[in-house]
Write a structure and sequence with these properties.
Layout lengths: L1 H37 L7 H23 L6 H4 L4 H36 L11 H31 L6
Length: 166
């Protein structure tokens, strides 16, 4: 599992860098739009750009939060538990999360396939939205892989009875 976990973490980290670049571009576009309004100047298609670029940033931010375990969790309860109880609770919550992300990935894939067939484009700039939907599906699949690896660790800890101590 070590190689797969390192590969998924590396892809997620590079995706996060890409996401930060896209969020930075979104910030620049929004600032330019706001400043342009003072000069009675409008950037046509800025909404289209923001709408598509933000998908990459959000998708990989979620993946980064999972990699670094920086998301919200009930640490007050979890940190007080030990051994098999902690591992069992972590296993159950990870199974629930994995199920929800699998549903999101599946729904994203169905939408991606449908919109790919339609040739969906943005309204003003006529940019294809399909690659951005593809990035979302890729990020949700990556999230599922991360959660599966986490589930594997929790089940191993449950079997050992150590609560996942490193």
């Amino acid at each position: 599992m070590g190689f797969v976990e390192r590969l998924v973490n590396r892809i997620g980290t590079w995706g996060t860098v890409l996401g930060m670049v896209f969020i930075s571009l979104v910030t620049i576009i929004i600032c330019a739009q706001v400043l342009g309004r003072f000069a009675h100047f409008s950037l046509p298609g800025s909404y289209d750009l923001v709408e598509t670029l933000v998908v990459v940033g959000v998708a990989f931010t979620l993946v980064y939060a999972q990699i670094e375990e920086k998301h919200t969790r009930a640490e007050i309860l979890i940190d007080r538990l030990h051994g098999r109880t902690k591992a069992a609770l972590e296993t159950v919550t990870t199974c629930i999360s994995l199920f929800l992300w699998v549903v999101l990935a599946y729904a994203g894939w169905l939408t991606f396939a449908d919109k790919y067939a339609e040739g969906e484009q943005t309204e003003i700039l006529k940019i294809s939205i399909v690659p951005f939907r593809g990035v979302w599906v890729f990020a949700t699949i990556l999230m599922c892989l991360l959660l599966f690896l986490k589930l594997y660790r929790h089940v191993a800890a449950l079997i050992k009875g150590d609560g996942g101590k490193k």
